[in-house]
Design goal:
about 300 residues, mainly alpha, two-stranded parallel sheet, 11 helices
Length: about 300
């Protein structure tokens, strides 16, 4: 039976199941969903909302499910719609009725909100690390070419003399701003919506500060309705990513031009280029072309 099926007299049509299901997309949130559920269970037990032994049973069951998922031993079901209901159904199958108590004082609304925030919160430092790696390479190249003179272009026409270092540092500065945009986004999203319930929290004595602390957030969100109804942090994150990709596209276009026979300013390392099956003289800048091509997506 579905988590929400209490008042219904008929089974959901399979077409509705397929249309409603998001498990194909949100399965990637399994780690965040389990982390949120473990924090929620710890809080429920500590607050006496459920028995401590039930909380411990739930936490152990969730840890087992996490190991099974990471070991490719789990097949998610369309009948359970999303990652949240899939995991809760698996938990109940494994530990019995105690699994159903996990949803006490919680809605899928705050569950989805906390999973999504956790996912973005964890991905931003990974992206920042990769951009900083790129910046270090650009700075290293710039230092090696302080006196390497080259033409600067406007309208693809030679305009003024500059240096290769100057070009590299132009992109280093663009990527530096991309890092600060991601850092700003991370700072603003660092609030926990868990405990907000469907929109107006719960009559149970939940401790939202405790769950925020357990999940590594700086604080719970100030307003429960805001916590479950807005995804501006995700839009801001996508905006920062879009600007970053625009800069990567610009840089890729420069590389493609500069390594062409018409320009011949640079040569790509063999490990980062491809060839032609019919034209052996070619050395194709496929990586840069694919980066540029992915920008629209």
């Amino acid at each position: 039976m579905k988590l929400w099926a209490g008042r219904f007299q008929k089974e959901t049509d399979t077409l509705v199941n397929d249309f409603n299901s998001s498990i194909q997309f949100d399965a990637r949130l399994y780690k965040q969903d389990i982390a949120g559920s473990i924090a929620h269970a710890q809080m429920l037990g500590k607050q006496g909302i459920i028995e401590e032994h039930e909380a411990e049973k739930i936490i152990n069951g969730l840890k087992t499910i996490l190991s099974e998922i990471e070991g490719d031993g789990v097949e998610f079901s369309l009948d359970n719609e999303d990652i949240h209901m899939n995991i809760e159904a698996m938990l109940t199958q494994r530990i019995g009725d105690a699994g159903k108590r996990l949803h006490t004082a919680r809605s899928r609304n705050d569950q989805v909100a906390v999973d999504t925030r956790l996912y973005v919160k964890e991905e931003i430092p990974v992206l920042i690390g990769k951009v900083l790696d790129l910046e270090r390479v650009l700075v290293k190249k710039a230092k090696a070419h302080l006196d390497t003179v080259m033409p600067g272009y406007t309208h693809l026409q030679r305009a003024q003399p500059t240096t290769f270092a100057h070009y590299m540092m132009a992109y280093a500065n663009m990527f530096k701003r991309d890092v600060t945009r991601l850092e700003d986004c991370l700072e603003r999203l660092d609030e926990c919506p868990l405990g907000a319930g469907a929109l107006a929290t719960s009559t149970h004595p939940v401790d939202r500060f405790r769950t925020a602390e357990l999940l590594g957030f700086s604080k719970p969100m100030d307003n429960s309705l805001d916590g479950v109804s807005d995804r501006d942090f995700a839009i801001e994150f996508l905006s920062a990513c879009s600007i970053l990709m625009m800069h990567l596209s610009r840089f890729s276009e420069e590389l493609i031009l500069w390594c062409s026979w018409e320009f011949q300013f640079i040569t790509l390392d063999d490990a980062y280029a491809t060839g032609s099956s019919i034209m052996p003289q070619k050395k194709n800048p496929d990586v840069a072309e694919l980066v540029r091509g992915k920008t629209g997506r």
